[in-house]
Amino acid sequence: MRVVGPIFAKYRLRILFGCVSLLLVDFLQLLIPRILKHGIDGLAAGTSSNAILLRLAGFILLIAVSINGLRFIWRYMIIGFSRILERIIRDRIFSHVLKMDAPFFEKHTTGDVMAHISNDLAAVQMACGMGMIAAMDALFMSIAALGFMAHIHFRLTLLAILPMPLLALCTRILSGQLHKRFNIVQEQFSLMTEFTRSTLISVRLIKAYTMEKFQVNEFDKLGKKYVRSNLRVAMIQGLMFPVATLTGNIGMLFVLIFGGRLVILRQITLGDFVAFISYLYMLVWPMMAIGWVTNLVQRGTTSLRRIHELLSSTATLPDIPVVEERHLEPVFSLRSLTFSYPSSRDPVLTDINLEIGPGIHGVAGRTGSGKSSLCKVLARLYPVADGEVFFSGQDVNTLPFEEIRSAIAYVGQEPVVFSDTIASNIGLGRSDASREEIETAARHAAIHDDIASFPDGYDTVIGERGVKLSGGQRQRLALARALLCDRPILLIDDGLSAVDVATEHEVFAGLKSHLAGKTVVIVSNRIKLLSMTDHIVILDEGRIVSDDSHERLVTENAFYRAMYLKQMRKEGEGSDA
Predict the structure, then answer these.
(1) Quick one: 45 exposed, middle or buried, by C-beta within 10 A (0-12, 13-18, 19+)?
(2) Under DSSP, is residue 417 helix (H, G, I), strand (E, B) or coil?
(3) 18, 325, 465, 496: least buried by Cβ within 10 Å?
């Protein structure tokens, strides 16, 4: 109710108006058997005339027209409300997911989140729309029909409802099984959605390794499991409707046997008997609706619980609101920082002491030494302990993470690009950027000439995940995006690894003037790029082993010197060739 309660409260007048319309429809439907009773009793007594029958027919026609009009109103109000509720919750889920930090996405796959927004939300919408209406309709019609039936003959009414405890018992047993089985269905749907997503985004790799048949077989296995899970749900659903129908038909059998005898004995009139059967037919629908409503409610409850669990998840980073804009110096101070990922106990960074201020800082080290982890910590993607990371002289845990991130432009190892135009991708961080500013950023990132070579230039749509671009072009596009934001801090986490050495040198040479006065951290193991930085930090197994200039590291650090000699040798061999 924490998810849907406030929405119901906001639209309570709309819901009330729809419910009143529904109750009026039910009330008018209950009048029709009474009109039929008067007509049949008049025919049996010989007191009816054409005028009387026409008047009764006119009443029935007027009631039918009114029912149709009111039915449109309650459907517009209630079913329309369920769609509004669906939109509000979907927007809330989407907004909530965007606010989550990196640990959240380690626990929840994309397929799982998509299942919440699609399948789960559809089940909630049905439960809060048709489920709520059917439940209310069934309750009112049951009570009203039983009241009219009891008014005609109380003991006959008791006989008609005698099988109902059987229906209540069966519904209780079956609904429990339905809840468990539907939960499995939703989990299977999440797995299938995630498998589809991961297959589509890696389709080129799958084709390169000729794994199409294998992926089809795996998808077929998931599909069969999903079908089997749905069939197990359908088995329960398939039992609910026959049980409800059987209960109603047993009651009808009792009425025909004992009610017919009452007519013969003239204890009730023929009109009463016809009206009683009409009300019993009206009672059959609520009995059948019990199974359907139970199905909808169980599906909706299961899905709503899953959505509630998702929305209840909290970010591990402190959510401190931004009170006012203030100037913060682009300076990081790391004091005995020890960091490990939430999913692991082993630290990836240990006892890091480092000052990072205006200037160009290089970070190098072996694979797995903690270079990327250091960038993620600086970008406030993961939580850190109090008193270990300071920004502009203040503990980062006392600052809004939005305030820190708004000062940082981040270029990762695997740049994220969207199936949009090149201009839109570069201008992602600044929607108000002019075409001239976008082109200037592209020139600084040394990708302008590549863009100009495309037929549509900056208006070229680059396809899913930038399929039309090479790896180096995607990295330089991401760099242009970061430069366009013009933020005081720039983190480049091996963001030029797919670019050749000559182009990398050209890019960095173009950046030197653009980055004056900014704090820049460049993660790379390329000597030519590192040699142009102000100083270089060498990491090894999560610890800082050296922090010095390029010239001193060549003579004093064995790892750096070995890397330097190897790359210089390769460069010499290349020039000789």
Answers:
(1) exposed
(2) coil
(3) 325
| pLDDT digit string (tens) for the chain, length 577 residues | 778 888 898 999 999 999 999 889 988 888 888 888 778 877 777 777 788 888 888 988 999 999 999 999 999 999 999 999 989 999 998 888 888 877 787 777 777 788 788 878 888 888 888 888 888 887 888 888 888 888 888 888 888 877 777 776 777 677 667 767 877 887 888 788 878 877 877 777 787 778 888 889 989 999 999 999 888 888 887 777 777 777 777 877 888 888 888 888 888 888 888 888 887 777 766 766 666 677 778 778 888 888 888 888 887 777 777 766 777 788 999 999 999 988 778 899 999 999 999 988 999 988 888 898 999 899 888 888 889 999 988 998 888 878 888 888 888 878 888 878 888 888 887 878 888 888 888 888 888 888 888 888 888 888 777 778 888 888 888 888 888 888 899 998 887 776 777 777 777 776 776 777 889 999 988 888 888 888 899 999 889 998 888 888 888 888 888 888 888 887 666 555 4
292 with 428, same domain: the answer is: no
Q: With contact defined as beta carbons under 8 Å apart, do 284 and 245 qualify?
A: yes
Domain check: are 151 and 278 in the same one? yes
Asked if 296 and 390 sit in the same domain, the reply is no
- Assess whether 204 and 335 both reside in one domain: no
Contact between 462 and 425 (Cβ < 8 Å):
yes
Edge-to-edge strand ranges of the sheet holding 389-391: 349-356, 332-339, 389-391, 394-395
Cβ atoms 140, 242 nearer than 8 A: no
Is 48 inside a domain boundary? yes
Six-digit token pair at 41?
A: 């009793």
Do 251 and 289 belong to one domain? yes
Q: What is the CATH number of the domain that holds 468?
A: 3.40.50.300
Q: 449, 443 in Cβ contact below 8 A?
A: no
Q: How many domains does the chain have?
A: 3
Last residue of a domain, one of 456, 486, 516: 486
Domain limits for position 176: 5-312
Tell me which residue of 414, 458, 453 sits closest to 436, measured CA to CA: 458
User: Any idea what the CATH number is for the domain that residue 126 is in?
Assistant: 1.20.1560.10
Same domain (yes/no): 254, 339: no
Distance of CA 28 to the CA centre of its chain: 43
| Amino acid type, 129 | G
Identify the bridge partners of residue 421 per DSSP, sorted by sequence position: 461
Task: Name the packing angle between helices 435-444 and 501-514 (round to 10°).
Answer: 120
Answer yes or no: do 229 and 358 share one domain.
no
Q: Does residue 564 fall inside a structural domain?
A: no
- Which of 204-211's residues contact partners 24+ apart within 8 Å by CB, and which partners? 204/467
Q: Is the pTM of this model over 0.85?
A: no
> Which long-range CB contacts under 8 A does 542-545 form with residues at least 24 apart?
542/347, 542/348, 542/349, 542/350, 542/352, 542/369, 542/370, 542/373, 543/349, 543/350, 543/351, 543/352, 544/352, 544/353, 544/354
